UniProtKB/TrEMBL annotation:
GO terms, biological process: superoxide metabolic process
Keyword Signal: yes
Transmembrane segments: none
Presence of the UniProt keyword Lipid biosynthesis in the record: no
Domain of life of the native organism: Eukaryota
Protein name in UniProt: Superoxide dismutase copper/zinc binding domain-containing protein
One of the record's GO molecular function terms: metal ion binding
Gene3D superfamilies reported in the protein's UniProt record: Superoxide dismutase, copper/zinc binding domain
Record SUPFAM superfamilies: Cu,Zn superoxide dismutase-like (SSF49329)
Organism: Arthrobotrys conoides
Keywords: Signal
Signal peptide: 1-21
């Protein structure tokens, strides 16, 4: 905390041009460790606008990061896509109320001002899964579309700020950010009637995610800020 405040002060004193905070007030998200591959969390939900959403979260062999599988089935074609999905702070409310889920999981206080830069995922909101790994394709309107990836910043450990098991939820949005479905993240072995996973017929091709627009982090300014922080660190 002190480091960042001091570094910012030095940046101002040296006249460096700092555009805006590209990363969290509390810094970048650290890469998580000790995520057991025996632990499985899941979120399964449906709504009038999505027939099924199934996500699971498991640890990895080396414990670094969390392996995410996400499948979305038959999104109502009246909803504009591609679609966004995130880990949100709170549980779904009564009658599947997605507003009750609050904001995105953002333990390092990045905020919403600038869009997530896929090339610098450590600076993104921890919960911004579609920002870091790509939006759900329009193919999710025509059957089941799936994707999977390791997210290095989610945690399955309750003492980690990026833990997703402490009454968090997943919210699925249309491209206008309207919340069109949501479900709670639960420990899989505590889930009732989990059901089987659909086999996808429209699997992610690993295409690069499309930028959401908005002020994406500019490489040069990022480098400049990095240099300023490095100088700050040397002076401290
Ligand atoms: C991971 O576990 C090891 C062994 O228990 C421990 O030394 C280390 O501090 C843990 N790392 C984190 C980030 O919790
Ligand atoms: C899809 O959305 C339209 C417009 O909101 C609605 O009229 C229709 O009933 C929805 N379809 C289903 C299957 O829910
Ligand atoms: C997670 O989801 C994927 C894709 O639907 C599925 O193949 C896999 O079996 C699931 N893993 C667990 C542990 O449930
Ligand atoms: C949904 O939850 C929000 C926030 O908790 C609340 O303000 C709103 O009244 C709820 N809407 C419905 C339809 O219950
Ligand atoms: C996926 O399956 C559904 C239902 O069987 C079918 O209507 C749809 O065309 C398929 N989608 C793709 C991309 O093959
Ligand atoms: C999404 O935004 C577009 C452009 O602002 C608007 O025309 C459309 O009605 C919106 N659709 C929904 C479902 O919110
Ligand atoms: Cu969201």
């Amino acid at each position: 905390m002190h480091f960042f405040k001091s570094a910012a002060a030095i940046a101002l004193l040296t006249g460096a041009y700092v555009v805006s905070a590209d990363t969290g007030e509390k810094g970048d998200a650290p890469v998580t460790e000790n995520n057991s591959d025996k632990v499985v969390y899941e979120a399964v939900f449906s709504s009038s606008n999505i027939e099924a959403a199934r996500l699971n979260f498991t640890g990895t062999e080396d414990g670094v990061g969390v392996l995410v599988h996400a499948c979305f089935t038959n999104v109502n074609a009246s909803q504009p896509g591609p679609y966004l999905y995130h880990v949100h702070d709170f549980l779904v409310g009564p009658n599947k109320n997605c507003t009750s889920t609050g904001a995105h999981l953002d333990p390092y206080l990045r905020g919403e001002l600038t869009a997530c830069d896929v090339d610098a995922p450590e600076t993104c909101q921890v919960g911004d899964l579609s920002g870091k790994h790509g939006k759900a394709s329009l193919d999710a309107r025509k059957g089941t579309w799936c994707t999977s990836y390791v997210d290095k910043y989610l945690s399955l450990n309750s003492d980690d700020e990026a833990f997703i098991g402490n009454d968090r939820s997943i919210v699925f949005h249309n491209i206008n950010k309207t919340r069109i479905g949501c479900g709670n993240i639960v420990l899989a072995n505590e889930m009732s009637g989990g059901g089987s996973y659909p086999s996808p017929n429209a699997t992610s091709t690993g295409e690069p995610p499309i930028a959401t627009g908005g002020a994406a982090r500019v490489g040069a300014s990022g480098l400049a800020l990095g240099a300023v922080l490095a100088i700050g660190a040397m002076l401290l």
